[in-house]
């Protein structure tokens, strides 16, 4: 039987790496293909598909391009974004499927791997979501589903936790994450399930990335270019 530790291991070592190797356009293409699958669902399909398109468009505007920054003669400076790692997606009972889809889309568009662990009635919906992503050729280790009762959000390898549900549960999760050892993990929560105020924020996708800079110095002694890259990881 596969344990949650093994699932996180595989998401980090294979799922995240394989998905991050895809170009931004390749990732969006697969997510839009997934939206076509979602659109067929009679209950939430149309709105969920629209949410996928919205998040992909915002990601296209905000993180798709590398930005060239000013620098001295003989030096090239670039600002770009990179994924954070593995995000855990969870919910309360009767959570908004559209909100969950929005979190999943933003996380994947940014290049992260995800572990989906929805509660009770939403567990069946999770199966539909995960199956649809796999049918759209998103790698199986990039998107994995687990039983919500088996997942430990205290695992320091998780880059963050996405949650849709009540404010009380949001507070509990926030307190739990604050007690973790190691690097801080952010909680990305949506508790306004009518207006979806957080997920429809135009800059929502930025919660799932880290910024990095790349400097190439072409004036080094002997003409050798030296590369300096900062941001993310343990920098």
UniProtKB/TrEMBL annotation:
GO terms of biological process kind: L-proline catabolic process to L-glutamate
InterPro entries in alphabetical order: Ald_DH/histidinol_DH, Ald_DH_N, Aldehyde_DH_dom, Proline_metab_enzyme
Gene Ontology CC terms: cytoplasmic side of plasma membrane
Record-annotated membrane-spanning stretches: none
Aldehyde dehydrogenase domain span: 49-178
Keywords associated with the record: NAD, Oxidoreductase
GO molecular function annotation: L-glutamate gamma-semialdehyde dehydrogenase activity
Protein's name according to its UniProt entry: 1-pyrroline-5-carboxylate dehydrogenase
Species whose genome carries this gene: Aliivibrio sifiae
């Amino acid at each position: 039987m596969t344990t949650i530790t093994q699932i996180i291991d595989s998401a980090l070592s294979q799922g995240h790496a394989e998905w991050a190797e895809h170009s931004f356009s390749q990732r969006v293409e697969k997510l839009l293909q997934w939206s076509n699958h979602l659109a067929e669902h009679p209950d939430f399909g149309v709105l969920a598909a629209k949410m996928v398109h919205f998040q992909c468009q915002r990601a296209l505007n905000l993180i798709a391009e590398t930005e060239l920054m000013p620098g001295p003669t003989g030096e090239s400076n670039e600002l770009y974004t990179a994924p954070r790692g593995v995000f855990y997606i969870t919910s309360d009972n009767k959570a908004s499927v559209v909100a969950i889809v929005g979190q999943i889309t933003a996380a994947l568009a940014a290049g992260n791997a995800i572990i989906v662990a929805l509660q009770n009635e939403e567990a069946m919906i999770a199966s539909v979501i995960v199956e649809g992503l796999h049918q759209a050729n998103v790698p199986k280790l990039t998107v994995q589903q687990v039983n919500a009762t088996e997942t430990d959000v205290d695992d320091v390898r998780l880059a963050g936790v996405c949650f849709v549900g009540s404010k009380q549960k949001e507070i509990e999760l926030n307190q739990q994450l604050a007690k973790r050892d190691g690097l801080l993990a952010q909680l990305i929560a949506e508790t306004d399930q009518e207006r979806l105020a957080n997920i429809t924020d135009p800059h929502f996708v930025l919660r799932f990335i880290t910024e990095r800079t790349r400097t190439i110095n072409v004036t080094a002694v002997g003409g050798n270019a030296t590369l300096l890259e900062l941001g993310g990881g343990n920098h």
